Amino acid sequence: MWIGSVFNYLKIQNRHERWLVGCLDLILEPVAGIRRIREIPRRNASPARILLLRLERIGDLLMTVQALQCIRRRAPEAHIRLVVGSWNANLAELLSDVDHVETVDAPWLSREGTCSSLQHIAQTALGWSQEQFDLGINFEPDIRTNGLLASSGATRRVGWATGGGGAFLTDALHYDLNSHTTLNAQRLVDHALPEESAPSTATKQEPLTLPSSARNLATLHLAECEQTGPIVGINPGCGRSIKQWPSQRFGQLAAFLSRLEGATIVLLGAEHERPLTDAIKRSMPENAKVVDLVGTSLIELAAVLQRLSVLITGDTGPMHLAAAVDTPTVALFGPSDPKRYAPLHPDTRVVNTSLWCRPCGLIRQPPTRCQNRTPDCIEGISVERVLDETRMLLSGQP
Length: 398
What we know:
Blueprint: H1 2-6, H2 15-39, E1 49-53, H3 58-62, H4 65-74, E2 79-84, H5 89-92, E3 100-103, H6 118-129, E4 135-138, H7 143-151, E5 156-160, E6 171-173, H8 181-192, H9 212-222, E7 231-235, H10 247-261, E8 264-267, H11 274-282, E9 289-292, H12 298-307, E10 310-314, H13 317-324, E11 329-332, H14 338-341, E12 348-351, H15 376-379, H16 383-394
Parallel strand pairs: 1-2, 1-4, 2-3, 4-5, 5-6, 7-8, 7-10, 8-9, 10-11, 11-12
Helix pairs in contact: 4-8, 9-12, 10-11, 10-16, 12-13
C-alpha cells in the first residue's frame, strides 16, 4: 500500500502501467542523481540549438504552437529542431518559428500502419547526440519519450515527471491535469526560457498561413457554395468510437441546417470514415446541397476549414485545425475534458452533458458499461442543442 502511494505522482490511469513505470523510476533514480551532479546544466546560458519533441497527434501539435512561438521570441537566434510523427510533418512545415522538422513514428503512437523501427529511432537519437543540442524539451508526459530525449545528449532536458522517466531529465516538472494542454506546454517554456523582464502574457495565436495550392483547391470546391448561404462542415469521425456522436444524429442535424438555414453541408473525414459520412448523405433531403470532401489531405483540409462558416465536430484533430485557421466551431465532448482539450478560440462552442462520471478521461480503456455502445456522456447530447449552438454561431452571436 505504501509503495502504491509513492506512485501517486504518476498520472497514468492504468494501475498496472502505473506500477511498472513507477518501479522503473525507482531503478533509474540513483543513476540519474549521479548524472545530474556530473552534468550541472548551464541554466543561464542562451541556447544556440534547441530540440523539441511533440510526437503525438494533430491536436497535440496544434495545442503546442503558442509555446513554439514563445520559444522563438525568447531565443530568436537559436536553431530550433521540431520532431513530430510523420502524420504531422506537412503541418509542422507550416510553422515559421521552426527551422527544421524531423519525423519519428513512435510505435506507441502510430495508427496509420507507419511505425519507425527501433533501429531507425536509435540511429536518429545518435544523430542528435552528435549535434550538441543545448536544450531539449519533451512536451509529452511519457517515460519513453523522456528516454528518447535523454539519448539526444542535450545539455539541459526539460519535461514532465508525471508520465514517468523524470530521471532522464535535468528539469522534471509535474503536469497539471486541471490546466489546458496549451498552458502546460507554456509552463515548460517558461521554466526552460524564463522571461527576463516580466512574466509572459497569453497572446492570441495567429492563424496558420496556408500554401496557395491548398487555398486554390478549397476555392475550387467551395466558391459557388459561398454565394448561396452558409457553409457548414461536419466531421463525424473521432478516431475512437468512445468519443463519437452517432452518425444518425449528424444526419438529422445536417438536414435541419439545410432546411432552416439553406446551408451547404461539407462532409469531412479520413477515407476510412466514409461509412459515417455515407450514412449522413443518405439521411439528407434530395434537394440538399452536399459537398463530399472525405479523404482530403491535411493541409487541403485546413484550407477547406478556413472557408467554412462553422465546423461541427467531435473531440479530434480537425477541431484544433479549425481553430488554427480561425474558423468558428461547435465541439462535442464526451469522456474527455474540454477544460484540458477544447480549443482556446473565442468562437468555439463546447457541447457536453452533466453527468457525475464525466469527464472520466478513459479513452483508451473505457469503463465496461461504455464499451461497444455509445456512452451516456455522448448519448446525452441532443440534436436540438447542437443545432441551437450552430445557429447562434451562424448568426454571429457571442
